[in-house]
Amino acid sequence: MGSQVSMDVGAVHVVIVGGGFGGIAAASQLQALNIPFVLVDMKDSFHHNVAALRASVESGFAKKTFISYSVTFKENFRQGLVVEIDLKNQTVLLEDGEALSFAYLILATGSTGLFPGKFNQVSNQQMAIQAYEDMVTQVQSSQSIVVVGGGSAGVEMAAEIKTEYPEKEVTLIHSQMALADKELLPCVRQEVKEILLRKGVQLLLSERVSNLEVLPLNEHRERITVRTDKGTEVAANLVIACSGIKVNSVAYRSAFGDQLASDGALKVNEYLQVEGYSHIYAIGDCADVREPKMAYHASLHANVAVANIVNSMKQRPLKAYKPGSQQSPSHFFALFPCKKEKEKILRILKGFCVRECVKVNAINLKRSLFV
């Protein structure tokens, strides 16, 4: 994939919707192959959201998690909000009225969720960084903090706060008994629980917050009362919600009907082509592939999608994507900033993870995608 495509690509143009891990991986490969493309995203910078929660507790860290798209992709980047995909005329319409024609379309819209775990809004780099700096101030001002949601994001948030500010009271409320994502090994999920307890995080498991919709999120207050469905009340100065992650289908939902899965993801075949459309690919979280939703998998999807675009151009057989039983938990190391704890988790995962799992430094991973 490293050499340029030795054929006339004048009539070929690829539009990539979404500049997350999958989108930038696809764009980088197309750029290296000298295949014309445009990458579209509502933000002006790539956000390494794997490190977003560290940026929520450490001042100055957020600027390391954003990289300008235009610096890397220059005129091949458009900042804009996709309002329509015209399948008949093969165009992507932006909110400002610009229409981008495509011979091939890669949908990489990712997932959406609550800040600070996700930052999905029209913004520039300075505004985005300031949002995280403001979050750091809220955390620093609060002595008692409640984290709602015990998936990987919630676990990471609680661990980041308690590691950076061990004197603060941190309570994690989760509706299930087991913490972190269900795709992880049971022994890993148990170790996560034990590490949080050793750090001093208070755990309320099998309880659901019943008044979340009226709670002020990400804002320091003198007193906030968090209530659960079992009658438990927790007093806090700050509430951070780390739940409600869902597929970001806004850009394409109106264009695709029968191709939508129940969660809004796009049904794809083994080549990652959207069902019924040989020139449209879905990668990352918005692809209905039965495997954990991870940045690592999104980059693998990008490899297959770009390879198949090239193969289509050259009239060669397409490459199938085969979801593996292995996963790369490199993102999971962010839950545990201490080297000793990272090494312990790595020992548990030994034999289960692929080579990429040793890439502990999230920022280096971010930059490697832009090479």
Automatic annotation (TrEMBL):
Catalytic activity, as annotated: ubiquinone-10 + NADH + H(+) = ubiquinol-10 + NAD(+); phylloquinone + NADH + H(+) = phylloquinol + NAD(+); menadione + NADH + H(+) = menadiol + NAD(+); menaquinone-4 + NADH + H(+) = menaquinol-4 + NAD(+)
Gene Ontology terms for molecular function: electron-transferring-flavoprotein dehydrogenase activity; flavin adenine dinucleotide binding
A single cellular component GO annotation: mitochondrion
Gene: AIFM2
Pfam families: Pyr_redox_2 (PF07992)
Record domain FAD/NAD(P)-binding: where: 13-300
UniProt similarity note: Belongs to the FAD-dependent oxidoreductase family.
Summary of the function given for this chain in its UniProt record: Putative FAD-dependent oxidoreductase.
BP-aspect Gene Ontology terms: apoptotic mitochondrial changes; positive regulation of apoptotic process
Cofactor(s) for this UniProt protein: 6-hydroxy-FAD
Domain of life: Eukaryota
Species this protein is from: Balaenoptera acutorostrata
Keywords of this entry: FAD, Flavoprotein, Oxidoreductase
InterPro entries: FAD/NAD-bd_sf, FAD/NAD-binding_dom
UniProt name for this protein: Ferroptosis suppressor protein 1
